[in-house]
Amino acid sequence: MKYYKYLKKEKDWSGETNPPSSLADLIPGKRGKIFSTTYVPAGKGPHPVVLMCHGIPGNEKLLDFGMALQAAGFCAISFHYSGSWGSEGDYSVKNCFEDASSVVDFILANKRSLFSSSAVFILGHSLGGLVACHIMDKRKEIKAGTIIMPYNIAQTVRDVKTSSKLRKKWEKIYENDFDHWLRNFSLEELRQEASAGLEPFDLASYGAALAKKPLLTIEGKVDEFLDKQTNMKVLREEIEKEPNNKMEKVDIYTDHGMNMNREVIKAIAVDFFSEQNKQ
């Protein structure tokens, strides 16, 4: 039997009271139910927990990151923002911020006694990187975070306002890649939302707050979607202005979707969270 070499590694979980599992939850949010999946590690809780924030529109869901964290002893929660992938309500960037905060509330409520309230971490990719920055700033309960190729939404708003060429570029991206996945959202909706003030959408505004917490930043060397100069570099430079900041930087050969060296990226993120969990 050609698969015998793999089956020799099979573990019998029949005697284990708390084997690994995954749970689906509809988390209460400000606009209705937020669809989520929690990967639970083996053993009795409470466990350290990582909140995972995916990007826009969410076709890259980071689920394999959740499984890697599960194998390392963490609960990992994947969730979908309002107006996307089955979650109720309309989609907007501010709603994404609020939804992530609602998931933090769900973790702290800890109705199944799965989560350790003293070991709550966050991971964000692309737009989820901006969301993670916001949550690390606003929620003191977040102990540390990993930010992967964050999307500086404020720069898109500036581009649309100042350059017809860039406006056409972003209109094409939003219309073709984003709008039809998301409820009541468009580039124009984003522009109107940001008219009240760009600060929450700007990675530069989070430098001082993030400098106070352990932070791993991972940049893709061949990111074809987000320009490093106006996205990750903006965040890193603001953090580095702060004395005694706790940021670690990793640049790795990968594209925005992390299709190259993905296993390495996961291993680095898991190692970072494991080290922070020991602190």
Describe this protein's structure.
With 279 residues, this protein is α/β, with parallel strands linked by helices. The protein has one domain (17-153, 201-278): 3-Layer(aba) Sandwich (Rossmann fold). Helices cover 38% and strands 22% of the residues. It has 10 helices and 8 strands. The protein has helices spanning 4-7, 63-71, 93-109, 127-138, 153-162, 164-178, 187-194, 207-210, 232-240, 262-278, and strands at 21-29, 32-40, 47-53, 75-79, 115-125, 142-148, 215-220, 247-252. Strands 1-2-4-3-5-6-7-8 form an 8-stranded mixed sheet, sandwiched between helices. Strand 1 and strand 2 form a beta hairpin. Helix 3 (93-109) crosses helix 4 and helix 5 packs across helix 6. It starts with a helix and ends with a helix.
Key structural traits:
alpha/beta; globular; single chain; 10 helices; Rossmann fold; 279 residues; 22% strand; eight-stranded mixed sheet
